[in-house]
Design goal:
The protein is mainly β. Helix content is 1%, strand content 38%.
Length: 383
């Protein structure tokens, strides 16, 4: 297991990388939190709205259609609840299978399988829902919400610690609960799921075998580098630090990211909560303080490693802050972050910096998308 440490990073002028900017791809969505497309589809995007709808967007015409509406299954009582994640099977155009992560009527998290139909699998009926996992939540926040298929074809699920402040039940370090974890399951069976035999805690008494890694507070957006297969996890902090975690390709089984003992690279300051760094802890590769400066914020939004058509951006991991409207990037070499850059001014919209960035997305051509919960989706372009 590789241990990653914060590197002091030099600021570089963004202008040296050419005239990269953003253009409005589409607007008018209702609190979008994700945009994606299944393999083999270049004409449309699937946009996830927090209220429970998935909208397909024709990128050429701008036309929108409702792909799936599960709003009757969701009751939002706090702004971190709702329909939060979407993952398509690799053979989606054949099987029509996709997976959703949402909070249900009582606030618990559900991961469900749905099956689309019709030409190019452009329609989906709520009646095809199959519950895969239900995770009881103790509060209405810290729901995590990201799901995605890994290079190993297994489904990965990022869960929050169950909510409230400072993880009062210490779920992050408790291997008997799914909360505060990265889960890993095999959904290749016609129904239900299987636990991969090489999951790190399989066969250990008192542990959840689905756990792949632990010690997370509220992971908000994870991503694999499509080229290197490295894994990035953005974890929202408590009161002082935001962090980006990193696992090199093929590494990370059983990784402990330290919460609730650690916030960023420091002991959590709450009395009787923080502690020394456990020997097995994987430190964040990058952290930033809470504040309003250009390199500070209050709630990290994890992004993607750019592998699209703009050559000057290759290998840059883009991420943002939800509360302080900033867009940044880092690069990773030998498990260390370097070349920190602030893109906020260069990537601003016509009305100013893009605010309330809920997520980043990617189309099937590798174009990077920036999603604002206010309803707009922007695309990085090379002028």
């Amino acid at each position: 297991m590789r241990f990653c440490y914060l590197l002091l990073l030099a600021w570089l002028p963004v202008s040296t990388f050419g005239k990269v900017s953003t253009e409005l791809l589409a607007g008018g969505f209702n609190q979008p939190v994700m945009a994606s497309c299944p393999s083999g589809v270049t004409s449309h995007l699937w946009v996830v709205e927090k209220n429970g709808k998935i909208i397909t967007l024709d990128k050429q015409t701008g036309d929108k259609s409702t792909f799936l509406d599960i709003s009757k299954l969701i009751k939002i009582k706090m702004n971190e609840q709702g329909l939060l994640g979407l993952a398509f099977c690799d053979n989606y155009l054949h099987s029509g299978q996709l997976y959703l992560y949402y909070t249900n009527h009582v606030g618990d998290s559900e991961i469900c399988r749905f099956t689309a139909h019709g030409p190019n699998m452009m329609q989906c009926d709520p009646s095809t829902r199959e519950l895969i996992i239900r995770i009881k939540q103790n509060a209405r926040n810290h729901n995590g919400g990201w799901i995605g298929f890994g290079p190993d074809t297994y489904l990965y699920i990022a869960t929050g610690d169950g909510g409230a402040g400072n993880d009062p039940k210490n779920h992050g370090q408790d291997l008997s609960t799914h909360l505060g974890k990265i889960l890993r399951i095999d959904v290749s069976s016609p129904e239900g799921y299987k636990v991969p035999k090489d999951n790190p805690f399989v066969g250990q008494v008192g542990t959840k075998p689905e756990i792949y890694a632990y010690g997370l507070r509220n992971p908000w957006r994870c991503a694999w580098d499509q080229k290197t297969k490295d894994f990035y996890i953005a974890d929202v902090g408590q009161n002082h630090w935001e962090e980006i975690n990193f696992l090199a390709s093929g590494e990370g089984k059983g990784a402990n990211f330290g919460w609730r003992l650690r916030e960023g690279l420091q002991p959590t300051p709450k009395k009787n909560i923080g502690g020394s760094r456990p020997a097995s802890t994987v430190d964040p590769i990058y952290v930033y303080k809470h504040g309003n400066k250009t390199n500070e914020g209050i709630s990290v939004t994890g992004g993607l490693v750019y592998r699209g058509p703009i050559k000057s951006l290759q290998g840059k991991y883009f991420f943002a802050d939800y509360g302080n409207p900033r867009i940044w990037s880092i690069e990773v070499k030998d498990g260390k972050a370097y070349n920190f850059m602030d893109w906020t001014e260069q990537l601003k919209a016509t009305h100013g910096p893009i605010s309330q960035i809920s997520s980043f997305g990617e189309d099937c051509d590798g174009n990077l998308l920036i999603i604002s919960i206010s309803g707009n989706i922007y695309q990085l372009v090379d002028r």
